[in-house]
Design goal:
Length: 417
């Protein structure tokens, strides 16, 4: 039986560990925290997943929240111009609803399941020296911990990483008390608020440790009017500052959000990071090689909601490639090939689209998002592509393709002459 060590117990690491375990591999997971530590700690992400990545989990029998997590069939998109109402507003169905499961709910369940199924769990904040010592005992070592010295083992790929500074400062609150949209009572939606020259606000129904809730987060352009959370000192101050910014920058939602309260004292998060793509193979001091996965090697800004989806997609691709590799050695060529398979299937398109959305929107993007309020076909396609961003290559990323697509949609709507 082949032995595999996975360092890191987040979406990518545990997904891969449970998948390998399902196929009979001897898997060891190294986690910096116990299940109880995760449950009682602070939130670490926003983690909305679309249908295709939830399908991976259902196929492995590790998705336990159908009928429990809020059902999200709709999306809404708004552009604020500084006035009391949005200058652009449209909605589109999420044809195959996704779900947002707080990692404080999901990862403890997965850690316990991994141990129940016979997996070995090492609770330790692993160092490079630890991994170097352990590596000789395993056929393959996968690093799924995307921060600190472990991530720094993996060299930044300058050709795929255009940024050297954070492009957004993030402020997240998990809340109860959000009133339903008066136009769609009883229906949960994922809302995108584009706030030009300031940033964005995204709202998602979620399941947290206290039950169903909503996650609100600002993506603030550094140094801009929304970048006002760096000095908050308490969760309560964080929420109060958030509500104040809603009043200033998204007044059209203030009535809906007039009775917000934090889900729990750990329900806030703030900070920022540099979007980075790293090389997938790192060499240990002893000369051994390890393979990076998830945000160790592709860390995109959460503006497009792809973090947990990319982690799940990378786990699915890596699982497929490991199974296909059979009994052959997991050498550097295998590691490079495995990552490049993931990059070509998912990483390249998602990273390019996310980086485009971090920039001031070019004219063709503004035209597309504006036209979606007139033509539902455009909004439907835009939202559907969140689940598979490869589709954006065909009509969204390039000004010429966008122009041709808009002309095609307008022509179809006009009908035969």
């Amino acid at each position: 039986m082949r032995k595999i060590l996975i360092v890191g117990a987040g979406q990518a690491g545990l997904h891969l560990a449970l998948g390998l375990q399902h196929h009979g591999y001897d898997v060891t997971v190294v986690s910096a925290r116990t299940a109880e530590d995760i449950e009682t700690g602070n939130v670490t992400s926003t983690q909305f997943q679309f249908a295709s990545t939830l399908k991976y989990e259902r196929e492995l029998g590790i998705y336990f929240w159908d009928g429990v997590a809020p059902y999200t069939p709709n999306t809404r998109f708004m552009v604020g111009g500084g006035g009391p109402t949005p200058v652009v507003e449209w909605g589109a169905p999420l044809r195959n609803p996704g779900a947002d499961i707080d990692q404080r709910v999901k990862m403890p369940r997965w850690l316990r399941l991994f141990e129940e199924r016979g997996g070995e769990l090492i609770v330790r904040s692993a160092t490079v020296a630890d991994i170097d010592r352990w590596a000789a005992e395993y056929d393959l070592v996968v690093v799924a911990s995307g921060k600190g010295e472990l991530a720094e083992m993996f060299e930044r790929n300058a050709a795929r990483s255009p940024y050297t500074q954070p492009q957004r400062m993030l402020s997240v609150v998990y809340v109860n008390g959000l009133k339903p949209d008066p136009s769609s009572p009883g229906v949960h939606s994922v809302d995108f608020h584009l706030l030009p020259e300031r940033g964005e606000m995204i709202v998602m129904p979620a399941l947290t440790v206290t039950g169903p809730c909503h996650i609100l987060f600002f993506e603030a352009i550094p140094g801009g009017p929304l970048d006002v959370f760096r000095d908050v000192t308490t969760p309560e101050e964080h929420l109060a500052r958030f509500v104040e910014q809603l009043r200033l920058h998204a007044p059209w939602v203030c009535e809906q959000y007039s009775r917000l309260e934090l889900t729990d004292p750990g329900g806030t998060l703030r900070g920022g990071f540099v979007p980075t793509v790293r090389r997938p193979v790192a060499t240990l001091p002893s000369g051994g090689r390890v393979l990076g996965i998830g945000d160790v090697v592709v860390a995109n800004d959460p503006i497009t909601g792809q973090g947990s989806n990319m982690a799940a997609k990378s786990a699915a691709v890596y699982l497929e490639q490991i199974l296909r590799h059979g009994d052959r050695p997991f050498d550097g060529a295998f590691m490079e090939r495995t990552f490049e398979t993931f990059w070509e299937r998912h990483g390249r398109a998602t990273t390019a689209w996310t980086n485009l959305m971090l920039s001031p929107p070019p004219p063709h993007v503004q035209q597309i998002l504006g036209a979606a309020s007139e033509f539902s076909t455009i909004g439907d396609r835009y939202i559907a592509a969140f689940d598979d961003p490869n589709d954006f290559d065909e009509w969204f990323m390039d000004a010429g393709k966008a122009s041709a697509y808009l002309a095609e949609v307008a022509g179809a709507a006009a009908g035969p002459r």
